[in-house]
Amino acid sequence: MNNTTAHSAIDDSVRAEIMRRIKAAEAEHNVKVLFAIESGSRAWGFASPNSDYDVRFIYAHAKDWYVAIDVEEQRDVIEYPIVDEIDINGWDIRKALKLFSKSNPAFIEWLQSPIVYVDDGFFAAHAKRLMPQIVASHKGIYHYLHMAKGNFREYLKKERVPLKKYFYVLRPLLAIMWLEKYDEPAPIEFDKLRELVKENLTLDAAISDLLARKRVSLEKEYAPAVPVINEFIEAELTRHENYTANVKKKVVDFDALNQLFKTTLMRYESE
Q1: Average pLDDT over residues 6-16
Q2: What is the DSSP letter of 199?
Q3: How confident is the model at residue 270 (pLDDT cuts 50, 70, 90)?
Q4: How far apart are alpha carbons 81 and 32 in whole angstroms?
Q5: 96-150: pLDDT as tens digits
Q6: Residue 68 lies in a domain
Q7: Are residues 153 and 99 in the same domain?
Q8: Does one domain contain both 187 and 264?
C-alpha cells in the first residue's frame, strides 16, 4: 500500500489514525483499498478548526467475489460512524466505475483531491486518463446548479447566515464557471476556482474576508449576510435560471472501463 499526501493540512497524528482505520477496514472486509483521499472542506481549502475529516476510498474484492450470480445484491459500500471527527466510507470499484461512466461528480472530485492517503499507483492514475473521454461537463453543471440553488434558498436568504453555507454555494457556482470556460472537470480547491473572479476586486475582497473568518470559526458559526456576495450569487443563479445543456454527446468507452476493472483485479490477485 503506497501512502502519499499532497497537502499539509492534516495533522500527523490524525493521518496515522486515518491510515489505521483504512487498514482495519481492509482486514474486516477482506478487501484492498486502491485509493483513499480527503473530501469535503479540508480538501476544498476552507475547513474550520473543528471540521470533520471526510475520508473516502475505492476498494476491490478478490476477483472471484465478482463472479457470482448474486453479485448485484451484494453490498458495494463500506461505511463507518463518525468517531473523533473522522468520517470514513468507501465504494467498491465496480460501483465507482459504473458511476464514473455516468460522470458522477463525487467520484470525479475524489480523483482530483489534493489530499491523498492511499494510492496503489495504478487505479486512480488510469481513471484520470479516461476523464476526457468520459466526463460530460453538462452533467457537472446540472449537479452544481442544484447544489447552489438548494443551499442558497435554504440558508442564505436571511439577515444572519451560517458561514460555511456561503462556500457551499460559491464553490459550485465557480465550478460551473470553470466547466463553461474550459469544458473539463473543475478543480476542487476553492483557491483555484476563485481565480475566475479575481478581476472583480470588491467581490474578491469580500470572499477573502469570508474565507479568513471561516478558517478560524467553528463549523456552525453564524454571521451577517454579505450583500456583495449575495448579489453575485443571485446574478449567477438568474443567469442559469433556465439552463438547458448544449449537450456534447460522448460515447462512453466501456471497453476501457472494463479493462481498467479487470486489470486492477488481476494486479490485486498477483500481489
Answers
A1: 78
A2: T
A3: confident
A4: 20
A5: 999 999 999 999 999 999 999 999 999 999 999 999 989 999 999 999 999 999 9
A6: yes
A7: no
A8: no
Strand-pair partners of 92: 59
CATH number of the domain within which 263 lies = 3.30.460.10
Number of domains in the chain: 2
| Residues 35 and 124 sit within 8 Å (Cβ to Cβ) | yes
Nearest C-alpha neighbor of 18 from the set 48, 44, 54: 54
Place of cell 440553488: 149
In this structure, is residue 2 part of a structural domain?
no
Q: Looking at the structure, tell me whether residues 130 and 17 fall in a common domain.
A: yes
Specify whether the CB–CB gap between 18 and 55 falls below 8 A.
yes
For residues 160 and 221, the answer to whether their CB atoms sit within 8 Å is no
Q: Where are the beta strands (DSSP E) in the chain?
A: 32-39, 53-60, 77-79, 86-92, 116-119, 160-162, 222-224
In order, the DSSP letters of 33-90 are EEEEEEETHHHHT---TT--EEEEEEEE--GGGGSSTTGGGS--EEE---BTTEEEEE
Is 234 a domain residue?
yes
Pair 24, 36: CB distance under 8 Å: no
Please check whether residues 33 and 145 belong to one and the same domain: no
**Co-location of 99 and 161 in the same domain:** no
Q: How confident is the model at residue 88 (pLDDT cuts 50, 70, 90)?
A: very high
What CA–CA distances, in Å, run from 159 to 119, 162, 233?
45, 10, 15
Domain of residue 55 covers 12-135+251-270
Residue 4 confidence (pLDDT): 45
Residues 156 and 266 in one domain: no
